[in-house]
Task: inverse folding
């Protein structure tokens, strides 16, 4: 079976296009009682962007905190706050921020129409009812969360996305001006998420012409941004993230992401930096990619934390291995159908112990 995948319905791109958000939302405000929920990364609470959010007087702005990456309990709490706010559902949910804030918006828009806890839906195609109309506005580029069909959540048992066609944004607003002030290290880590998406997609067994076309374009843009530092680098990085996301949508990520999920679940390491920490030890699987990544790190003067998992208690290490091993499609993409013979528990442990 070929994947019949759902894409974002509407995309607006360009410097300053955030100013069009008011017009875009106007079409969804069906009557005088309609309201829109804005879930905005609290890093912007006192910023110029806060003043530009086109909120009307019935709208609800929630400043979300992403010091920890999204958890199912936080999604459930936000959903309840919105239900308490009004006796009707919102006309739209708008997520403004990096991958974390966008994922929160996706998850909340799903949980407003589906019963129970978000933890019940971690997995593939468990969501039954369409979400509230939802809009994604990245302020940090690299995760590809703006185009993906998942919202990545840490739950009580596992770190796993709510993967469904309903998760996909109805609208995205890609305004490169919004990523201008991201701190250098963060820009690098999240940018490398895209770079690693491409390396894993382009070197995977699931590769096909669709994924290759997007992956090659995205990796070229990453090189321009992180090795050449030419003009328009924010515009390019934003499109690299988009294309990288499209590439993995029709293939899969690989070894680095599987190991990084384990690291993140047990140690709380954030996605971008976690991928960088892991990728630096993957010469055996992605030799050219790792070499090029090291040149980018050098150019950006990045030094990664070391000895994170080395010396960790046995039960925590075991949990890391468990979380990584659940991600079967990632391993199969990276290593082929016989991956279980190659990537044993001991091998994964040994890799973690070097980090
Ligand atoms: P993030 O959203 O976690 O943000 C990282 C930091 O940057 C935060 O402190 C945030 O406040 C800050 N920040 C964001 N925009 C800023 C700006 N313009 N200026 C200054 N600071 C800014 O980082 P991320 O790397 O974009 O996202 C990581 C999250 O995305 C993880 O939770 C990960 O699981 C998820 N993710 C999701 C997908 C998906 O397809 N849904 C894919 C990859 C990763
Ligand atoms: Zn990623």
Result:
């Amino acid at each position: 079976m070929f994947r019949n995948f759902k894409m974002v319905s509407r995309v607006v791109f360009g410097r300053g296009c955030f100013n069009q958000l008011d017009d875009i939302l106007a079409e969804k405000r069906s009557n005088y009682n309609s309201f829109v929920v804005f879930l905005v990364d609290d890093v912007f609470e006192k910023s110029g962007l806060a003043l530009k959010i086109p909120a009307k007087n019935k709208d609800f702005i929630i400043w979300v905190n992403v010091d920890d990456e999204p958890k199912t309990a936080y999604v459930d709490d936000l959903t309840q706050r919105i239900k308490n706010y009004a006796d009707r559902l919102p006309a739209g949910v708008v997520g403004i921020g990096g991958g974390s804030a966008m994922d929160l918006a996706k998850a909340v828009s799903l949980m407003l129409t589906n019963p129970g806890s978000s933890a019940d839906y971690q997995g593939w195609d468990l969501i039954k009812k369409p979400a509230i109309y939802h809009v994604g506005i990245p302020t940090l580029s690299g995760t590809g969360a703006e185009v993906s069909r998942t919202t990545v959540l840490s739950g009580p048992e596992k770190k796993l996305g709510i993967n469904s066609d309903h998760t996909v944004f109805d609208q995205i607003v890609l305004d490169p001006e919004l990523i201008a002030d991201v701190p250098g290290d963060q820009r690098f880590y999240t940018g490398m998420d895209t770079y690693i998406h491409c390396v894993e997609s382009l070197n995977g067994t699931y590769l096909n012409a669709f994924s290759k076309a997007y992956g090659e374009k995205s990796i070229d843009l990453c090189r321009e941004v992180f090795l050449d530092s030419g003009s328009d680098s924010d515009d390019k990085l934003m499109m690299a993230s988009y294309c990288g996301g499209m590439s993995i949508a029709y293939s899969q990520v690989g070894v680095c992401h599987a190991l990084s999920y384990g690291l993140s679940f047990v140690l709380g390491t954030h996605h971008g930096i976690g991928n960088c920490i892991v990728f630096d030890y993957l010469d055996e699987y992605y030799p050219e990619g790792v070499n090029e990544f090291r040149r980018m790190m050098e150019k950006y003067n990045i030094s990664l934390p070391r000895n994170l998992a080395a010396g960790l208690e046995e039960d925590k290490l075991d949990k890391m291995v468990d979380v990584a091993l659940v991600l079967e499609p990632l391993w199969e993409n990276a290593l082929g159908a016989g991956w279980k013979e190659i990537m044993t528990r001991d091998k994964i442990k040994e890799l973690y112990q070097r980090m």
